[in-house]
Amino acid sequence: MDTTVADPLVGRVLDGRYRIESRIARGGMATVYLARDLRLDRIIAIKVMHAGLASDEDFVARFIGEAKAAAALSHPNVVAVYDQRTDGEHVYLVMEYVAGRTLRDALNSLGRLGPRAALEIMQPVLAALGAAHRAGLVHRDVKPENVLITEDGQVKVADFGLARAETASKMTKTGMIIGTVGYLAPEQVLSGNADVRSDVYAAGIMLFELMTGRLPHQGDTPLAVAYKHVNETVPPPSSVVPGLPARVDALVTDATSHDPARRPHDANQYLAEVAEVYGGLPRDFDRRVEESSRNATSVLQAPPAHGRTALLDADTMAPEHAARPTRTDRALGALTGRYVLVAIGLLAAVILGWAVWYQTSGQYEHVPSSIIGMKVADARDQLESDGMDVRTAKAVYSDRVHKGGVAKSDPPAGSRVAKGQTVTLTPSKGITPREVPDVEGKSVADAKKTLEDKGFTVGRTSTTPSQTVAKGDVISTDPGAGEKQTPDEPVAVVVSAGMSMPGLVGQNGDAAANQLRSMGLKVTVEKKQVQGKDPDTVISQDPSEGTGVSRGDEVTIVVNKRDCLIDTGGLQIGCKDGDGNQNVPVPDLTGRRVGEARRALEDSGFRVNVTGFGGNVVRFQAPSSGEAPRGSTITIVRGP
Predict the structure, then answer these.
(1) Catalytic positions
(2) Residue 117 and residue 545: Cα distance in Å, rounded?
(3) How far is it, in rounded angstroms, from Cα 319 to Cα 293?
(4) 437, 454 Cβ separation under 8 angstroms
């Protein structure tokens, strides 16, 4: 079906001035149309907000403010915003029409760009962002889809202000982060806040993508990608495309630093750095990188051996062209051959005698091959006993030699050295560091196997009580998961000793019951009236404080009854402390399964709002601690 014909806006004149001629594209918040300004008789683009957003007064007000700010930008690399209007239910922008294609289209077509071509495109993009930053405007959604390339090669950046208006609106409604997750700076993921350095981060991600053909962080879900932005650094593009110089790598790694203070402070500074590196690259640099990439996987052909070819030609000449030796020639040749054999024999004897002397002479020693892997002190003793001086160099990591052993020597092991010559030993700092795997929540046996599979050994094991991790399971490791350590060093493991019954006597009965339920315990509350005790407080508990308990165990608390007035019919007519709203503790359920968390909160008297990208584990909770009124809403964010 022709969607252009089916679109009800096609053919309509908005505000008596802008005639919609065809639909160009449809996005998540708006549809873009090709239109004609009847008053000025020129082709324009109109972006019409979707009805759901246009009905949101807060969004419309914010959008209008941001559109005005964007319209104030006047820069050759910015898609101009001419007007913002409302026609009935339609809220729309009137913009410059750019005939061409997006940078995303170009990237999909080419796969990736050479470093010089990528830096050439980045310069007008950064110039546009720099103009916005000088005006106090943050784009918030820098990506190839928002970069347009005209038919004559001019680069223009679109959608200034729209990302901010949309993000602010949806943040207000759902508390979720809105944006293209592949380009989000860590601070946007953690807090939703963005400034000009967040645009610089996104530009660094886009530069990586242009040169490699892919995003640095990828995952099965948007949450997984966002997690990587927060917890993993962006690798240098040379790790994907060999041959890129360090200064090109630095443009990406500096711009994508997790600490905003370490990035270029705005797009203008980043533009200056990009331009400097671009100016230092030869004009044919992209061709060199491409050829280097191809040659890295090709088989080099040796040049022809011209001397050997000539010899073969002579050997295969026809017999009639070869000179025949005479009898005298043959006799002379035989005599000469005998002399040559005698001379060769004498020379061999001389060489052999010299070699034996050289090998057995007391003036030389060998650096023993056996010292590689030997403890440095033992290797030193052996070399010094052979008459050599020994020095020790700075230790290095080695995948062949464990910590404390000799990783290499200079001169190399096996070579001959004169007596008194210095041999330098380089100790091993251990095997090259690797990331410690995440074993939290696993049994000790499973954790040990996981660590050993990665080359690590389990070191000191300690126990500590835990209200959230089952007895016998791992709470944490030292170093922590994701940190790097040489496998030569053991990994310490902290194991849960299980839960212990808290001391609840004197606490509010409802709060005590909620605390126990949040621990996964089955709670029985008994009522008993005892004079001299505060009403609604725990007067006894079973088991007693400090007793070990496990999830699912049954526990009992006895709560003092309120001192209530009873009428003659046995009905309660009032209590001294009333029945007003009461604050109760909020259990922290982060890491628990969503269904289990929901039940614990509802048992505590709260309403529950579940949101998130998917998965069945509570990743965030608000509020996560403290107290809240009974009946109030607790929001939990699910994730994988």
Answers:
(1) 141
(2) 70
(3) 51
(4) yes
Q: What is the pLDDT of residue 296?
A: 53
The pLDDT, as a whole number, for residue 579 is 41
What tokens appear for 456 in the block?
């690590």
- Neighbouring C-beta atoms of residue 332, cutoff 10 Å: 12
Query: What is the distance between the alpha carbons of residues 12 and 17, in angstroms, rounded to a whole number?
Result: 10
Q: Report d(CA 476, CA 294) in Å as an integer.
A: 46
Domains 100-289 and 500-580 share a fold: no
Domain ranges in the chain are: 3-96, 100-289, 367-430, 434-497, 500-580, 583-640
Instruction: Tell me the C-alpha distance between 431 and 158, whole Å.
Output: 50
Q: Which residues contact 617 (CB under 8 A, 6 or more apart)?
A: 591, 592, 593, 594, 638, 639, 640
CATH of the domain spanning 434-497: 3.30.10.20
Which tokens in the block code for residue 121?
């495109």
Mean pLDDT by 10 residues, the chain (640 residues): 65 93 82 91 90 75 71 84 86 89 91 94 94 87 92 85 47 44 91 90 97 93 90 94 92 95 93 92 88 54 31 32 40 43 47 45 63 87 85 85 85 72 88 89 91 89 82 90 89 88 91 86 90 88 87 90 52 41 78 88 88 83 82 87
- Between CA 496 and CA 461 the distance in angstroms is 11
Q: Which CATH class is domain 583-640?
A: alpha beta
Distance CA(183)–CA(532), nearest Å, equals 64
| Class (C level, CATH) for 367-430 | alpha beta
DSSP3 helix / strand / coil % (the chain, rounded to 5): 35, 25, 40
Q: Do the bridges between strand 572-575 and strand 554-560 make them parallel or antiparallel, or are there none, so unpaired?
A: unpaired
Cα angle 622-627-633, degrees, rounded to a multiple of 5:
45
pLDDT at residue 412 in the model: 77
> What does the pLDDT read at residue 587?
86
For residue 13, give every residue at least 6 positions away whose Cβ sits within 8 Å of its Cβ, in sequence order, or none.
Answer: 19, 20, 38
CATH class of residue range 100-289: mainly alpha
For strand 633-639 and strand 607-612, is the pairing parallel, antiparallel, or unpaired?
parallel
Element (H, E) at 314: helix 306-315
If 0-12 CB within 10 Å is exposed, 13-18 middle and 19+ buried, where does residue 342 land? exposed
Q: Measure CA of the first residue to CA of the last residue in the chain; give whole Å.
A: 39
Fold for the domain defined by 3-96: Phosphorylase Kinase; domain 1 (3.30.200)
Cα separation, 123 vs 625, in Å, equals: 48
Is domain 500-580 given the CATH code 3.30.10.20 in the classification? yes
